[in-house]
Amino acid sequence: MKIALVTAFPPSRKALAEYGLHVAEQLRDNSAIELVVLGDYLPDSVPELTGFEVVRCWGFDRASNLATISRAVRSLEPDLVWFNLGFASFGAKPLAAMAGLATPMVLRLFGIYTHVTLHQLFETVDLMDAGVTRPRLYRIGGWLATHMLLGANAVSVLLPAYRRLLQENYKRGHVHSRSHGIFSARPEPPDFSKRGNPVHRILAFGKWGTYKRVDVLVDAFEKFGAELPGVELVIAGPDHPKTAGYIAAAAAQYANSGIRFLGYVPEASIGPLFQSASVTVMPYTSSAGSSGVAHLAAQYGVPIIASDIRDFRELAEHEGIAIEFFNAGEPASLAETLREVLRSPALMRKMAEQNFAAALHITMPEVVREYIRSFDQDRRLRVLQDLSRLRRLPAWHPQRKSLVGRCAWQVRSWAEVSDQNDSPKRNPPVR
Prior knowledge:
By secondary structure, this protein is an alpha/beta fold. The chain folds into three domains: about 1-175, Rossmann fold; about 190-360, Glycogen Phosphorylase B (Rossmann fold); about 385-425. The chain is about 45% helix and about 15% strand. The protein is built from 15 helices and 13 strands. The strands form two sheets. A seven-stranded parallel beta sheet has the order 3-2-1-4-5-6-7, sandwiched between helices. α10 (about 290-300) links the parallel β11 and β12 (about 305). The two termini are about 20 Å apart.
């Protein structure tokens, strides 16, 4: 099966690039899959990652993305085009964003099978937090964009509540609910000797400045920091693209020996950072989908404290992740929750073990295998539909011979793909 994966892709740092990388790694490791990544443009001086075939054919805020992606897909002739998307993946400007989000539907109209993994819904976004200046226009555009995305052959969302919302509000489309997954194939158990030694680290991780702000967290830390010596607050991650300079300004404002601002954290440093954290805090004022930070914390067996937001409640229930909640936007509530967790080694260990156990059930290989099984089932259905049409064609029809050959090739490939879903094997790297 030949798959074209449309995603922001490292060394790009655009939204969902890291998720796209981990999905691509699993597809590359399956010898029944031929993978081509259709990635976003990079500066000329930036080298590509080794081991992947990458075609750079679209860019943020470019109205031409629909045309350039379609041209690349037609030249590659894949069996499937898989889009890894959020609503702002293709741009902040309305024309560029809408043209990009129309691409799965347009490709389907040309007979190409398309699947969209959609990381958030516009209905769940707090428009004030997101910095939306024209909320009415945004809602109209979001409604239209969602209808276009549902025009793909299938859409996967990462929380069951999102699937219910789409079914109730739009009443169309083929929608699946799937797990976000952790980024590791074989997560390492938490090393408790690294925590609280010599200090307890409170870790906050993300892209800051919109619905992720440090104010509540810093205020809460200042309320209880003096009561619990040996506690450090680490705020990691860069500015959100809409709030350039936010982290630098916050670091200057909250200069404190107990608070560290790390800025952007390279992929190789993320593991040690989470392994040394006693607790992860998500002090968000709203949610923008199934949290990647929560899944990182689960992967490394770190207890989680989060704002009491509906999506986080759904995540905890759906995936069995241990989260202690506080009232969103209230420093006193967060300070009290931090006190309760940090003063109870038994609770921290219990939460850590529960999160790691949950992570073992949603490893990225398992998540991607579920996608591939679904893709294979849909491909088999399409072959059976072709066979049904074939039976109705007269023997003299000019397309009959080519249709017979295509169906025979597809049927022969079924067993190979099914075997590889159960036992993935690494392909030689692409040079």
